[in-house]
Amino acid sequence: MGLxxxxxxxxxxxxxxxGGVLIIFILVIARLAVKGTPASRTNTWGIAVCVxxxxxxxxxxxxxxxxxxxxxxSTKANMILNIIDTVFWFALFIITILGTMGALSEASxxxxxxxxxxxxxxxRHFKKYGSVRxxxxxxxxC
Length: 142
Description:
The chain crosses the membrane at residues 12-33, 45-62, 83-104. This protein has one domain (7-33, 41-133). The chain has 4 helices and no strands. The chain has helices at residues 5-33, 41-65, 75-101, 106-129. α1 runs antiparallel to α2 (41-65) and α2 (41-65) runs antiparallel to α3. It starts with a helix and ends in a 13-residue tail after the last helix.
């Protein structure tokens, strides 16, 4: 099983995105645990967006890297999933900012600011690239 440069780059990008989603998920859970965080939709929306992105990423990873599942792979489906991700991450960004303004504790405000800041790179990636396509990646010399 030889890895091409395109697959290696795609694999690294998937790991970075997965790590970012996991970090934001952990921060949303931590924000829920802090006293002074109002019980609102902001945090449940953050959990839902992270779980949704995890499911979308799992679909893309499984259909890209496992031969048995490649028959369900679709560039059009990946594009649609990434467009949906862009909208949801933007909504999380806005809702987190609004929720942070209503927070009563400094720790909750700080976590809200960190979460809002970390959503920007994910939002920018999905807006700029849409999906990770093989033809947009550098070709392997092999």
